[in-house]
Amino acid sequence: MNPTAQLLKKKKKAILENWMQNQLADESLREDLISNDDLRRQSEELLNGLLSAIEKGNFDDIYANEFEQVTDILSDISVTRARQGFTPCETTLYVLSLKIALTDVLEKERRDQPELLYKEVLQINRLLDSLSILTFETYLRGREEVILRQTDEINEISTPVIRVWDGILALPIIGTLDSSRTQVVMENLLQEIVNTGSSIAILDISGVPAVDSLVAQHLIKTVSATRLMGAECIISGIRAEIAQTIVHLGIDLSNVKTKATLASALLLAFNMLALEVKPKKTTVNTNRIIK
Amino acid sequence: MITMTKDTMQIVREQDVVPFRNRVRELSTKIGMSLVNQTKLITAASELVRNMLKYANGGKIILEIISKNGQTGVRLTFVDEGPGIENIPQAMQDGFSTGRSLGLGLPGAKRLVNEFDIKSKVGSGTTVTVTHWKNGR
Amino acid sequence: MERIPILKMGPFLLVTIQVDLYDRLALNLENDLINMVSKTGARGVLIDISAVNIVDSFMGRILGNIASMSRIMDAETVVVGMQPAVAITLVELGLTLQGVHTALNVEKGMELLYDKTDILTEQAEEDNDGETDDHDD
Known about the structure:
The structure holds 3 protein chains of 3 kinds. Chain A is α/β, with parallel strands linked by helices. Chain A is 64% helix and 9% strand. Chain A has 2 domains: 3-155, Globin-like, CATH 1.10.490; 162-272, STAS domain (Transcription Regulator spoIIAA, 2-Layer Sandwich). Chain A has a 5-stranded mixed sheet, sandwiched between helices. In chain A, helix 3 runs antiparallel to helix 4 and helix 5 runs antiparallel to helix 6. Chain A is rod-shaped and about 105 Å long. Chain A starts with a helix and ends with a helix. Chain B has helices at residues 17-30, 35-56, 88-91, 105-112; strands at 2-11, 59-68, 71-80, 115-121, 125-133. The longest helix of chain B is centred in the N-terminal third of the chain and has 22 residues, at 35-56. By secondary structure, chain B is an alpha+beta fold. Chain B is 35% helix and 34% strand. Chain C is α/β, with parallel strands linked by helices. Chain C has 5 helices and 5 strands, in the order E-E-H-E-H-E-H-E-H-H. Chain C has helices at residues 23-40, 57-72, 84-93, 106-117, 119-136, and strands spanning 6-9, 12-16, 44-48, 76-80, 101-103. In chain C, strand 1 (6-9) and strand 2 (12-16) form a beta hairpin. Mean pLDDT of chain C is 86; it is low at 133-137. Chain A binds chain B through residues 141, 144-145, 148, 180, 183, 187, and chain B through 36, 70, 135-137.
């Protein structure tokens, strides 16, 4: 066994105490986010893993097999901390405070052998620096996952498919249409067409701030996919300035049924399904009023 | 980038296409790819394997599950020893074909996947690599 | 050799594709269908692809061919039941199946065929003719 590892293992209890003290003394300790017991359990687990990883004298390669447990625990800790709302600083300090605890013990034990002490402190420094970089990296990844999930959720929420009539679906699009958004719109719309057996879909773009050639292309794609499924697609909510840009950009929408308002699109849909909406006969009532 | 699994399939006849497509489906299901993204990847793979059979009488395909920046994806490498492509930009244009087809194979496949790379040398063959990520981005 | 069965339903032909198509099978289907149209004088062809997971440019071309060839022989073609993932992939591939009618399911496809071929009105006229004939006797 590596002599440094042996010494540290012997002093494990002292190191843990020292480390816990460092952490508890730190002003940034978030007792609101994690209880002291949890913190101690977490710390002990990590320390145990670390001590058995360095048994064979590997202080450099944290991607080696023996470090798997340590990196797993660390990634786990930093990802959970990212979700719990710790700052990156607090998360990295967790690892760095372990460094202080380790070097403190070494300093005490190796007082008579300055040369060895210097070498060992350097080793520990290097190792824990790599570990803290890893922690920071996984912390960021944890955050990124949160952002990605939220993006997906926003996409889901912002594209509801509404069944306005038997056989007619409406899809109000609000916000900019980019390619990933178009994918979600298409998937939701087509799936809903299958689920409800609807034969007409109205895409309302009143809430789309601007239509450039890319957005128009996405719209045309959606219309084509709907047609391939055997349903017809009407685009409604085309404002004056959108009509202007479409013509100025030379976008050909002649193959697509377009309407200015959702109401007129709905009327067209009724016509296509041979439905009629009439005002209710109220002659009887008016007669009574007159009498 | 880390390669998680890797295997190779030889394609020599048309009947090899269906098992190959099934293998791609297996891999993409394994990493939890959505149905739409699976369909896109398999369709692109189908176009490319058809090209390989038609112009080079077959070849080999390397199928891998890879991971990069925390993303998992499927990477397919189509290697043939056929005549090669003289003018790649032209071959990547919609509607261009030296055979009697629609000419959608290469450009269509490129549109369907996240990453597309083609290398070719006249007389010694063509290698096409496509990658599609789990979430299709 | 594997073949896809073609059913005759009144004036129409009905095909349900239940297996993964490889090229030869698709070409056979094109051949068989066109021969059947000419033999039976069918007025419409309904192809149900609800069980098909992958439609690539080759399959798309076969569907287009069937529609164009049938039209020359005075028969309309309706493709029904395309899966959403397949539709999205085809659009991305750049294939919109111009000239092919589509419908959500077999029932709606049949309605569309009756609609497009005017068979009902023709029959009604024949019935009317029959009645007047009876009257004359």
